[in-house]
User: Which sequence fits this backbone?
């Protein structure tokens, strides 16, 4: 199993914290955001990691080499990060869209059980991790479902039809990877491609096929780190986690004051 993490953006809504460093390198309770992601993946035996960088890419590269060993995490630079949305980041790593893999937003913080539930769910070509809450705001990536099959995904869906939200983590099997890559390559030939999110391609696939399904992670801890208030929420969430596993070791020492 492989994981691809999209971490090319600056995180401008977190300024001034991201004035000199990308969002994924912000420290939360002893570790950076991207370390929390990779360690949670490793706990689920997802050891092949690809990170797409852009803004201040050297800082991400150095962090990963220092923490995991030189070259242990594959890094792909997206030179279009300033002028394009994240569909371009997906296009940059399209050669990795083969076999089973996870695609993860670089600002999604999650406990290991989230990835575990998505990996152990029913087998479909494409499966989105979804959550549910009583009310949704304009920034939520909302879902309309037919049972567990995805019908539509977007921020501007009619609220009375919304059945959940995407958390920013998707599993692909080999057939889903083929469909996703082919659709991206077709979309990138259009003039508006640089303005598109990759989830608009997922929406397109859901409308054209029955390949896109969802898996609930309701009741498990995750957070999108987009605003300063999100950082506070993330710190509180991590503080309540079980620290007893191998990959949480460094953060546990810092958090408990034993290092």
Assistant:
């Amino acid at each position: 199993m492989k994981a691809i993490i999209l971490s090319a953006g600056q995180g401008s809504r977190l300024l001034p914290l991201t004035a000199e460093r990308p969002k994924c390198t912000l420290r939360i309770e002893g570790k950076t955001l991207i370390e929390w992601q990779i360690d949670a993946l490793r706990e689920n035996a997802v050891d092949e990691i690809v990170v797409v960088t852009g803004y201040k890419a050297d800082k991400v590269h150095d962090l990963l080499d220092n923490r995991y060993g030189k070259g242990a995490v594959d890094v792909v630079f997206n030179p279009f990060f300033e002028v394009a949305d994240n569909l371009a980041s997906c296009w940059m790593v399209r050669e990795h869209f083969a076999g089973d893999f996870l695609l993860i937003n670089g600002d999604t913080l999650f406990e290991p059980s989230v990835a575990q539930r998505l990996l152990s769910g029913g087998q479909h070509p494409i499966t989105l991790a979804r959550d549910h809450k009583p009310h949704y705001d304009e920034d939520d990536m909302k879902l309309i479902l037919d049972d567990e099959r995805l019908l539509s995904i977007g921020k501007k869906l009619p609220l009375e039809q919304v059945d959940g939200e995407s958390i920013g983590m998707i599993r692909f099997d080999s057939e889903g990877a083929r469909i996703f890559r082919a659709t991206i390559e077709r979309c990138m030939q259009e003039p508006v491609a640089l303005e598109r999110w990759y989830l608009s391609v997922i929406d397109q696939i859901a409308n054209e096929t029955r390949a896109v399904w969802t898996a609930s992670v309701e009741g498990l801890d995750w957070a999108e780190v987009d605003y300063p208030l999100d950082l506070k929420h993330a710190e509180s969430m991590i503080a309540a986690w079980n620290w007893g596993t191998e990959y949480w070791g460094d953060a546990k020492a810092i958090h408990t004051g034993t290092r």
